[in-house]
Specification:
Layout: H1 2-16, H2 26-42, H3 44-69, H4 72-92, H5 96-106, H6 113-142, H7 148-173, H8 180-202, H9 204-230, H10 244-276, H11 280-295, H12 297-316, H13 318-354, H14 359-365, H15 372-387, H16 391-416, H17 418-444
């Protein structure tokens, strides 16, 4: 992060001086950015990006392959099922992946790892199982009649993926992100092969079966690695901070916030599905939402990797954390904005060339990609609030964004159709990002709380 500090210092000096800063040239800034990129490739960020791409990127690639062989109408059904499963898995996790990172980062001693991991995994296993059963029972209500059978059989993936993500988060908390690619890449590649073969031989039912088997394989690998890492040492004394009641009280608001964030990201697809049912326009919107999710992989990985250091800075140096936040804002904009603009401009020509069935509405729907940068910034600000134990603030902001987003999209869609949904989505996303950054900055102005007394340590 030394290059980030250098760039941020140059930018502050340049903005404070009426004349150009004499020791800073364009070439020196470009050299610092180049060094930063090279250092990221050697550091944990590269491994995290590889792991995230292996788990999420291959899923996106598989769905793009399905888009090529399915009609827009059928692909819209698949996307609605995936949206519900993805959102439900976030809610099912009850905030435990982030709680795992935070608690392990706060208590890095190996003696406490077994206690933290056991309590967090027990909590997420219960919440994820209940959520999966609930989705199975409510499948006919949550999606259209055409998508309900797929959602019913995909429901076990909700619990499997939630528990697997919590296991992976343990290694982020102990600053061992380099191990994540070794854990996630082989299961992702293997499950992709199963999905491809299953879809080719048995159609969409083969795809559903491959998805569930892939999540089961990922859970088995990550849980075995976690078990080996924490070992079978003596259990620590029972602490109030790790009671299930405390974990749920801290994790459920976070889970609801992440669940609402997932609904916000998928709201164009959900609003179109409710208003028009299965249609070609729904398939196009689903494809654009898939591309938007892919564009958040790299900046989202950077945000995930920054959480442990943010937690540690929040306890000791809020001023340094505030500077870190705004440097990450600068880098996030650099990573998210150019690809979003390029995707919005190039999506329609590429669709006309490779996916002609999606071309008619793509020119308009592709502008939804401009909502990617504010989503990344809101996620970054939410991570800062998690580090400073301000989950309730993020909870209120996210629910307010979701309510305002659905209201404006519904009204705009009734009057202007897809164009109204695109405009409403972009406007609300940028307003939400501004509110998140303001509140994160405001909380960082407050001094850190006094250290909590240790119990039996």
């Amino acid at each position: 992060m030394a290059q980030l500090r250098t760039i941020g210092r140059w930018l502050r000096r340049a903005s404070a001086s009426p004349a150009p800063y004499p020791n800073v040239s364009k070439s020196s800034i470009l050299a610092a950015l180049r060094n930063l990129a090279l250092k990221c490739l050697r550091a944990d960020l590269s491994g995290l990006v590889i792991a995230t791409f292996a788990v999420q990127g291959l899923s996106y690639a598989l769905q793009l392959a399905l888009a090529a062989v399915l009609s827009p109408r059928d692909f819209g059904i698949v996307r609605v099922s995936e949206v519900v499963v993805g959102a439900a898995s976030i809610f099912a996790a009850a905030g435990m992946p982030s709680m795992m990172i935070r608690l392990v980062a706060e208590e890095p001693a190996a003696y406490w790892r077994r206690l933290v991991a056991t309590r967090v995994l027990s909590t997420v296993a219960l919440s994820a199982t209940l959520a999966a059963v609930g989705v199975m029972l409510m499948a006919p209500v949550l999606v259209t009649a055409e998508a309900a059978p797929f959602l019913l059989w995909l429901a076990p993936s909700i619990a499997l993926s939630a528990i697997a993500r919590t296991c992976i988060s343990f290694f982020y908390g102990i600053n061992d992100a380099k191990r994540v690619p070794r854990l996630s890449v082989p299961p992702a590649v293997s499950s992709s092969a199963v999905v491809i073969v299953g879809a080719h031989v048995f159609g969409l039912w083969g795809w559903v079966t491959g998805r569930v088997l892939g999540d089961l394989l990922l859970l088995g690998v990550t849980f075995a690695a976690l078990r080996a890492s924490i070992g079978d040492g003596p259990a620590a004394s029972f602490e109030e901070r790790l009671r299930a009641r405390w974990l749920l009280a801290s994790g459920v608001p976070l889970a609801v916030s992440l669940f609402a964030r997932s609904l916000i990201d998928s709201s164009p697809v959900l609003v179109l599905a409710r208003q028009s049912g299965a249609s070609d326009t729904l398939g196009v919107a689903g494809l654009v939402s898939l591309i938007a999710a892919a564009l958040t992989v790299v900046p989202g990985s950077m945000v995930t990797l920054a959480l442990p250091s943010m937690v540690q800075l929040a306890q000791h140096d809020r001023a340094q954390l505030k500077r870190r936040l705004w440097r990450l804002v600068f880098v996030s904009v650099l990573l998210a904005l150019p690809p979003a603009i390029l995707g919005a401009v190039a999506a329609e020509p590429l669709a006309r060339r490779f996916l002609p069935a999606y071309a008619p509405d793509m020119a308009l729907a592709a502008w939804l990609l401009l909502a990617v940068p504010p989503r990344v910034l809101a996620s970054l600000a939410g991570t800062s609030m998690l580090a400073t134990d301000q989950v309730q603030t993020a909870f209120v902001l996210t629910l307010g964004t979701l309510a305002f987003m659905v209201l404006t999209q519904t009204l705009a869609a009734a009057r202007w159709g897809l164009a109204g949904i695109v405009a409403a989505t972009i406007a609300v996303e940028y307003l939400s990002a501004a509110a998140f950054l303001f509140m994160a900055h405001w909380h960082l102005r407050r001094p850190p709380p006094p250290p909590k007394p240790s119990a039996g340590r």
